[in-house]
Amino acid sequence: MNGETAWAVYEARLRRVSNHIHEHLDEELDMDGLAEIACLSPYHWHRIYRAIYGETAAATVKRLRLHRAAGDIVETDLGISEIAKRSGYPNVQSFNRIFKAAYGMPPARYRREGSHTLFESKQRKASTMFDISVRTLKPTEVVGVSHQGSYMGIGKAFEQLFGTLYARGQGHPGLRMIGIYLDDPDVVAVDKLRSYACVEMDATQPAQAPLERRKLEGGEYAVLRHKGPYAEMHKAYTWLYGEWLPMSGRKLRDTVMFEEYINNPRDVPPAELLTDINLPLV
Q1: Which of 1, 111, 213, 238 is deepest in the core (most CB within 10 A)?
Q2: What is the 3-state secondary structure (H, E, C) of the chain?
Q3: The whole model's pTM is what?
Q4: pLDDT tens-digit profile of 180-200?
């Protein structure tokens, strides 16, 4: 098997397993079963998966279920017991314990007091509590994988992106991670939302399918540094567009906005995640 054939085989297997995990989070996900989907022995598969993604498949499943649960807690009125069941936990007590270990407080308290509540006017003392600045950014070449659907699900595209890059020998831990979001989730139906999971990559690097090459414009951007779980980002956008922009006296430039992920959800707890929201200005 030559090098090109080898990476194509592993890339396809990584994509197949990643897709299965994302599409079956409501079901029991047996690790040996995932190895069967990858068509590799459990002994080898778990090591390959960890080498590519930096965590075990079991850790991926746990992280994705808690990520989705946090989104349900912040954005819906679903009961905690229902969210726990949907996340694969047999009782609320075990879900509370595991959620608190990851998010710093049990789910009911997180719904009331999580950092997403800082963006609600009744709890905000002053806009200075938000880390926002205007910066001049250089044009940036990126390659990415397209995603359609809930922005909370873009992690699936990022896993396909990194699986593809590592299988092709183009991946490394220091890649700059960027999410490009084309639609307003308050206007466009969830299943129609378009986005791209990207990394910065020089234009001289090959970018064969499923990778797509894009270019982010340089110029002035309002940059909001968000600290906390990705599930809380929507509140930051509402404040940025609804309050900061009118008060700033600035106008939007007709180009895409994007997020840059300063650290990695595999390396830090959700409360420590740092994300720069970049809003293009005239």
Answers
A1: 111
A2: CCHHHHHHHHHHHHHHHHHHHHHCCCCCCCHHHHHHHHCCCHHHHHHHHHHHHCCCHHHHHHHHHHHHHHHHHHHCCCCHHHHHHHCCCCCHHHHHHHHHHHHCCCHHHHHHHCHHHHHCHHHCCCHHHCEEEEEEECCEEEEEEEEECCHHHCHHHHHHHHHHHHHCCCCCCCCCEEEEECCCCCCCCHHHCEEEEEEECCCCCCCCCCCEEEEECCEEEEEEEEECCHHHHHHHHHHHHHHHHHHHCCCECCCCEEEEECCCCCCCCHHHCEEEEEEEEC
A3: 0.78
A4: 999 988 889 999 999 999 999
